[in-house]
Predict the structure.
Amino acid sequence: MPYWGHPRPELARLWYEDGALLWGGTVEDVDGTDGDSLSYAEVECRKQWMSELDFLRKHIPGFGLARVEDSGTSIGVRVTRHIVGEYTYTGQDLLESKEFPDEVAYITPQFLGVPYRCLIPRDVDNLLIASKCISTTPGQTGSSPALGAYNNMKSIPTVMTYGEAAGTAAALCVKMETTPRKLDIQTLQKALKDQGALVDLPTRLQLMDKLKRPDGTSHGESLRKNRENSRQRWEKRGYKFSAER
Ligand SMILES: Cc1cc2nc3c(=O)[nH]c(=O)nc-3n(C[C@H](O)[C@H](O)[C@H](O)COP(=O)(O)OP(=O)(O)OC[C@H]3O[C@@H](n4cnc5c(N)ncnc54)[C@H](O)[C@@H]3O)c2cc1C
């Protein structure tokens, strides 16, 4: 079996006393909506980490008596189904830093706002989406051949902001005896702001400029640079921006 694990244990995600948390394995082309496919992936990943253990025991000093203490209870899946919402966030929106009047959450590290309509299913009433399956297009603005948004919108800090927005909206709907689709957006934005959520773009931008990176530059500076690099990459591929920048 090929070695799939972490060739440099010092780069493992987490060290603790006499232990290390290691990358568990990766299986591609799995259908996260299909039980057989998931079972296959789970068995395959367990085989991979057994081979990793074997490698560590044989080749890495200090790991001779290593054993597996624990593992994830089930396999993690990056992409499965998405709700089609009242609005679908696209790669173009991200690339062009589009602003929306109904922003209630935001994408990190880009700090761009996500509209409330992405959390509202187009065809189902009385439901709010509080997770990575909000309404987005597949793909990313990074290296993938197809321009999309999903991969930029599923990190844990980003998904937390969907949760806060959806939870607050649900509470307001109960209080105001209304449905998520009819909820007054300004009331929701005010409630989120009062809780300390970074609903305003200017507030987020100020924060980014204040936060310093280890090299002394601000996060704002680095993000603007990354954004520009990303735009240039897509321009080279023939993407036409709709607005001057
Ligand atoms: C392998 C992998 C590595 C990743 N690495 C990173 C990383 O390094 N950094 C990062 O920011 N993001 C990372 N991500 C992405 C990030 O973890 C997810 O996008 C994010 O956790 C999604 O949050 P969520 O709340 O939508 O779903 P989840 O975190 O999947 O939460 C859904 C929860 O619902 C529970 N659940 C499901 N069905 C039911 C049910 N019927 N009843 C009750 N509960 C139920 C599940 O058990 C789960 O706890 C990674 C994802 C994967 C798969």
